[in-house]
């Protein structure tokens, strides 16, 4: 059974680089990765906040939030 992973980002260069280097590096046999562009999907900002995301880019994996660098605070995406 695959584990769900959600990669939240805002489309900035830091976020895009993290997506290309980290989210795509996860083993597709083990992880089902969903990429969520919060700049385009603002309705999903509350979901990201509920998961514990404080800034993007961030990867939520097994309920744990991994903040990767700092592209934008979550408040800037509302």
UniProtKB/TrEMBL annotation:
Transmembrane segments: none annotated. InterPro entries: Thioredoxin-like_fold, Thioredoxin-like_sf. Residues 10-67 form the Thioredoxin-like fold domain. This is Thioredoxin-like fold domain-containing protein.
